[in-house]
# Entry
Amino acid sequence: MATINTYLNFEGNCEAAFNFYKSVFGGTFTFLGRFEEMPEGDGYKVSETDKNKIMHVSLPIGKTILMGSDTVGDWGPKFVQGNNFSVSIIPDNTEEADKLFKGLSAGGQITMPMENTFWGSYFGMLTDKFGINWMVNLEQNQA
# Structure
């Protein structure tokens, strides 16, 4: 079965965001590279102000990997906070659902608190302090 990994872009605060996510989920980065490590090419040059920004970071979470980078230069993707997506988390039990929801919502905004839903899940939504949308969805037969 295929695994879905989420890739997040930030406007200069990728490292702070991923340190926050690591504090919530635990684990260690399997890779953290900065733009200063990237060889420059004809079509792009890394400015002095962008060299210390995150080129790529990977944080394993369960069987998936959360990945991210900062946006830099005219040659990189343009930053749009939130990018109209959510990261969906499927926890193993109610205790884990509550722990992750509480951790991710710290300093952010709760859109829908964790509650039992009409479709049979224990579910909640939030936007974290970095503007990323999250959904926590525990199917009742897992609770």
Q: What stands out?
A: The mean pLDDT is 87.
